[in-house]
Every structure is written in C-alpha cells, then in structure tokens.
Design goal:
two-stranded antiparallel sheet; disordered N terminus; alpha+beta; single chain
C-alpha cells in the first residue's frame, strides 16, 4: 500500500481517491460490531440498579464492593464483631479488607455504636474500632445516650448497601436478613452521604 501527499493509494493497477464516502464504507462494519454484536453488559455497566440481598448473600456482595472501592468507603454499624480466635470469620475478613482498602489510598470512615446500657455491643465495637484504627482507618463512635441502629455502607459515592445486617458471625452466616444494594442513583446516594456526614460530625473519636 502506497500513500501520496494527496491521499491516493494503489490497489492493484487502479488508483482511488480516499474520500469521506470511502472512509465511511471502511469503518461501517466496525461500528456495526461495536453497537450490535458486543455483549450488552459491556455497554451498560453503569446502568442504575436496585438489588435485593438476602440472608447469606450479604457477605460476598459487600466483600467484593470493598475490594473494588477506588475512592471512598463509609460505614455505619450497630454491631461489628472481630473474633481473634477465628481469623477467617466473615466479619474479620470485612474488617481486614477495610484496612487493606485504606492502605491502597481509599478514604475509609467507620461509625460505630457505643452506649452505657449495652456493654456487650460496646465492648465488641470498641475492639473492632481499635483494630481498624491500628490499620489507619478513621473511626468514630456515636454519643453514649444515642442508639445508632442504622447499618449502611457507601462505596465511591455510587453504591449504597443498607438493611438489617450487622457485621457479626451469626448475622453474616445464619440469620434471616434483608438488605438493598442501590447503585447509580446520585440523588439517593447524596442524601445517604449527607446523613453519614451529619452523624460523623456528631460522633466522637474515642
């Protein structure tokens, strides 16, 4: 193939001028492949969706979302259990993956419940909070006279997961639980982020 300054090319013994019509004819098959033959999933990855998460589906969904987070993770938990004697417990894995996310540059913030009337939950959350803090994750605790029973995760200002699940062994492995994953609804996500930020400002680092 030989090109001249006037954009001529040699095809056998016949010269043809490279016109706009020729260009369209050349690229039309590629456009057809892109728009009609590629899998629809590859073209619609950011389609808004709401997904029901039932029972033990919660752990793999949340774990994958944490692993894929690129900018920010915000968590509100009523009860977060870390079990030193069971390192492979699902909640331990989620906590460790929050730490890993922070180490790769993701801004991770966690709000945990504490109270004077529920020492079991308070003790469990304080232990998880210490482990997260040691991993350079930002942790705050709600005011002792307020019960924070919400369970919320926001990923990259684009995905929110909220529902009944605590980060405890029974909640993640045996209980009947329901949560929702909301993705690609900016107005809803923004309201949830505003709620998180308000609670963050009202909470204490110790």
């Amino acid at each position: 193939m030989i090109f001249t300054k006037k954009h001529y090319w040699l095809n056998g013994c016949k010269e043809k001028k490279l016109t706009e019509k020729n260009i369209i004819q050349i690229f039309l098959p590629f456009l057809f492949i892109f728009f009609f033959l590629l899998p629809t999933s590859s073209l619609c990855e950011n389609t808004p969706k709401i997904k029901l998460i039932k029972d033990q589906e919660y752990f793999p969904v949340v774990n994958e979302a944490i692993k894929e987070a690129k900018r920010s993770i915000e968590v509100i938990a009523f009860e977060m259990g870390y079990y030193p004697e069971h390192p492979s417990s699902p909640s331990n894995i989620l906590i460790q993956n929050l730490i890993v996310a922070g180490k790769r540059g993701v801004d991770v913030r966690v709000i945990l419940e504490v109270s004077s009337w529920n020492p079991r939950v308070t003790e469990k959350n304080k232990l998880s909070g210490r482990i997260l803090c040691q991993g350079r994750v930002k942790v705050r605790y709600d005011l002792p006279f307020i019960t924070t029973h919400a369970k919320l995760i926001i990923i990259d200002s684009n995905i929110a997961i909220l529902g009944s699940n605590n980060w405890t062994y029974y909640s993640l492995t045996q209980n009947k639980e329901l949560s929702l994953l909301v993705e690609g609804y900016p107005d809803i996500i923004k309201e949830l982020e505003n709620y998180f930020d308000k609670l963050w400002e009202e909470s204490s680092p110790s």
